[in-house]
Amino acid sequence: MNHAPASDATGVAPVDRPLLVVLVLGFSSLCAALMQSLVIPIQSELPDLLHTSASNTSWVVTATLLGGAVAMPVAGRLADIFGKKPVLVTSAIILLAGSLLCAMTDTFLLVLVGRVLQGIAMGYIPVAISMVREVTPAQMTNAALSAVSATLGVGGALGLPLAALIVQNMSWHALFWLSSILAAVVIAVSATLLPHHRREHPAKIDVIGAIGLAVGLVSVLVGVTKGNDWGWASPSTLGMIAGGTLVLIAWGFYEVKHESPLVDLRTTVRLPVLFTNLAALMVGFGMMAQSVVVPQLLQMPAATGYGLGQSILQTGLWMAPAGLMMLAMSPVSSNLLTRFGGRITLAIGSGVLAVGYLIGVFLTDEPWKLMLATIVGSAGVGIGYAAMPALILGNVPRAEASSSVGVNSLMRSMGTTIAGAVMAIVLTSRTLTLGEATIPTHDAFQTCFIIGAAAAATAVALTLLIPRQKSTDGSAEQEDLRNKPVSVSA
Questions:
Q1: Does residue 250 have a pLDDT over 90?
Q2: What pLDDT, in 10s, does the model give residues 382-411?
C-alpha cells in the first residue's frame, strides 16, 4: 500500500486518470439506479409469478425504496470513516447478491430480500458523487458532478423501456440475470480502477444511530407508501407514521449528544445545507410526480377519450428521451455551476421543472406532446440534481462529505415517496367508470401536473433562501482539513 501526503489545499493527492475514474463512478451509479424501475413492467404479473397476493407483491417495489432510503446516509457515513472505495465495492457486492437471489428463485420472501439488497446497493450513488471532488482537478469537477449526479434520474428512466423489452422477449428472471452481470462488472471496475483515500484517524461507527434511523425511516415510509391501500385513517397507517416520527425525534436527540454521530445534525441545520435539503425534497417530489402520472396517462385506454392507449414498451420508449435529457444536460449544468454557482443553478433547474409540468397541463392529447413535457421537466431535474451535491459539498467539512451527500439523496428519495402517495390520492379521488374498471379522470391527471409545478416552484423559493457563499475556495472544507491528513492508496 502506497501512502502519499496531501498535495494541495483539498487534502487529497491527485489521481492519474480522473476521467476514467469519473466514467467508472457514473456507469456504476447508473447500474445501481436501474434497480428503481426494474420490476415495474412485470408488477401486474408478480402475484402469479410469485404465487402470492397483489398486496404482498407491491412490497417488491417498495422494498427497494426502503433499502435505498436507509442505505444512503449510512453508506455515506461509512465512507467518511473507512474511505469511499471499500464502501463502493461493498455496495456493488450487495447488488450482485440481491440480483442473484432474485434471479434464482420464485419464492416471494426470497425475492423480497433480494430487492431489499438491491435497494441497499443504491448507497453507491451518494458515495460516488462525493468521491468526484476528491479525484478531479478543479476545471473538471463541475462537469463530473453533473454527469454522475444525473445517473440517479437516468437509471430510473431508462430502466422502464429496458425492462419492458426484456420481459417481452424473455423470462422475467432475465431482468435479474442482467442486473447480476452489471453488478459483477461494477465490482470489477470499482475494485481495480478506483483510488482509495482514507483518513488516518477515522471516527467510530454509530451503530445505535444507524439502527434508530433505519427503524424510524422504514416506519414512516411504509406508512406513507401504504396509506392509500390501508386507508389514511387506519390504525396501521397512523401507527407506522406516528411511531416512526417518534423514533426519529428520539434518534435526533441521541445524535446531537453523540460524540461521533451517524449524521451530524448541527451540520444539517446550517442554512445552506438545510435549504438545499428541503429543495431536494421538492425536486424529488417533482421528478416522481412526472414518473407516476405520465406513464398512467400514456397507458390509459383510448376509449376514455383522453387516454393514449400505449403498451408498456411503448410507454417506456416515450419516457426514455426524458432520462437521456438528464444526461445530456450535464454540460449545461456544468457551465451554469461555473458561471453562477450552485444556488442559482438549482433555482434555474427547479424553475425549468415547473415549466415542464405547466406544459403537461395543456399538452396531454398526443404521446409526443407528453414526451415534450417530460423532456423539459427532466432537463430541470438534471440541472437541479447537479447543483445539489455542489451546494452540499461546498458547505460541509470534508470529513462529513459523503454522509451529507447521503442525507441529501435521502431527502430526494423521501420526496419521491411522498409524491407517489399524493399522486395516488389525487388519482383515486377523481374517477369514472369504464366497463367494470374505475379509472382517474382527465382532470385528476391535470391536477397532478399542477401539484408537481407547485412543488418545483416551492423548490425555487427555498433555493433563493440559501445564503450566498462569501467565497468559492471551499473554506468550510479547508478548515476541517488542516489537522486531518489523508492517505492515498492505489
A1: yes
A2: 898 888 888 888 888 877 877 888 888 888
C-alpha cell of residue 108:
416471494
Cβ atoms of 445 and 304 within 8 Å: the answer is no
Cα–Cα distance list, 295 to 131, 367, 450 (Å): 34, 10, 17
On whether both 103 and 169 belong to a single domain, the answer is: yes
Do 411 and 278 meet the contact criterion of CB atoms below 8 Å apart? yes
Q: What is the number of structural domains in the chain?
A: 2
What is the amino acid identity at position 313?
A: L
- Residue 6 main-chain phi, psi, to 5 deg: -60, 140
Decide if 7 is inside a domain: no
Can you give the residue range of the structural domain that contains 218? 207-259
